[in-house]
Amino acid sequence: MSALAAMFRSRPAVLVVSATLAVPLLTSTSAAAAEVGEASGAGAAASGLAAERVLKDDVVLTAVRGGTVRVKETIVYRFAGHDGFQRTYPTRTHESVTEDRVHRIENLRAASPDGGPSKATASTAGLHTTVKVAGGRKLTGDHTVVLEYDVRGAITRMGAAEELRWPVVGGWKVPVDEARAVVEGGAMIRNVNCFTGPIGSTIGCTQYYTNHTHTQGVFAQQGMLPGEYLTVVAGLPAGTTGGRAIYERRHTVATAFSVNAVTGAALAGLLVLLVGGVLALYLLRGRDARTVGKRAAEGDQVPVAGTEFEPPNGVRPGQIGTLVDEQADVIDVTATIVDLAVRGYLLIEEEDRAVTGRLDWTLRRLERPQTDLLPYERTLLDALLTAPDGSARDAVRLSELGGTFATKLAQVRSAMYDDVVKQGWFARRPDTVRSRWTVAGILVTLLGIAGTVALALTTEWALAGLALIIAGAALAYGGQYMPAKTARGATVLAHTIGFRAFLERGALPDDDSMAARQRIALFSRFLPYAVVFDLVGKWAETVKDAGERAEGADNLYWYEGPAEWDLSKFAESMRTFTLATSGSISQSRGL
């Protein structure tokens, strides 16, 4: 830039001087107002700080190879009772959602030729670095401090040039009367510019130009308020320093869940585990499916031979229900109650609704040896006919079980799980297997949640924790399918499926080869299995006309209805009875 241009650039200085002369007056007025509004101790401190100021801040920046800028700052500071001062540099800028531009201040040191503070420390928090210079005593008057440091990241490649940009002066808590900066680039400086005010301001400074050799950029600003900056810009030829901007990945939610080597390996491991789990389930369930498919046809036949009839392999209704879905459900217990009545251990009496005012049933004990009862059946019969005080009773209304039977129901269901293991259909109790896998899955999920939170707050590996959550959830869900039948259990299941197909057809011999009473007995024997398979309505159709064929067949030997009741009403009675029984035995007593 020519000398004429330099003179032209310096013309606004006259106006700035006037503004500068006004700064002490404004500052003094503000200080006086602060003293009036504050308590005496705080007011004195505020007054001391207001009286302090930077008389002159003269900075020399030297750009060297490698992109480092060496800064030497000579500060003339007027003290008013403090032992030092501090100023703040903006050293981190958010360039994007995941990336920051960083300036690093290094090799910080301070000295004072006239007894001023000379101990310099730097601390970085958030987007700023604060430099504090302190001494061993409180000071008054004017003192000079020479502050030196290196800054990296201030030079940026700009196409065919390099740009040095740095807020050389500013970040003070006190006013600055005069600021001056010189940039030595070690090469011809192509262009210069400067700005004053907050970071990012586009307001030009008081004066800027290059010397006559264009190897120095000179910048000046008269009068700066606390918190303002003087930012200098100098364009250098490409390759002058080889410097470049420094960027760092910022830790955010977006970066915390990024895909990298660690999270990629975790996701790949999760995929392997999921595929392995599917394969394991296929092998376990596939074996059951192959056995069932092979032998199902063997069970799909009418299990009647002359006057003898039995379900496949002599399996009881409660056992079938537990075998089919691997759970001892309430409906399996209800079917067992019906089965105990059919086999002569209970009599089910439907009460007359017109007399009692509500629909209810009485379960009455019948005297019969319990030699052929399975353990879970004996547990159920004792639970039904034992009063809350522990005494035996001969009969109980179904409505009396509501709210009192739930704890006993858990004992019956536990005995049913023990039974299917004893029969050799499962290697371990299905409920225990499910519980172990579910608990393990929940623990892994909770560990994954805690790990994800911790990793998201501190690293970029949060996806690894998320993979753990997915693995735990898959473990808990897949655990419901982990109980596996033995080969013997799969064979029994195959016959059971065939037996269900027979019940679904609801077909009994409809000729003279089977008497009406025999039809009723066959119907009764298979009815508990129809309860398990939810086929009561369809199966009841097989004997709705049996009362007309057999004299005195208006009741079943194990089920007695009220007056004017006959078998034509039995399907609805049994449907209502099973629903009421399931509800009563599973209902918990409220508080």
TrEMBL record:
Signal sequence range: 1-33
UniProt key word Cell membrane: no
Domain annotation Predicted membrane protein YciQ-like C-terminal: ranges: 308-541
Name of the protein: DUF2207 domain-containing protein
Keyword NAD listed: no
InterPro entries hit by this protein: DUF2207, YciQ-like_C
Transmembrane region(s): 261-284, 437-455, 461-478
This protein's UniProt keywords: Membrane, Signal, Transmembrane, Transmembrane helix
Occurrences of domain DUF2207 (ranges): 58-234
Lineage, uppermost ranks: Bacteria, Bacillati, Actinomycetota, Actinomycetes, Streptosporangiales
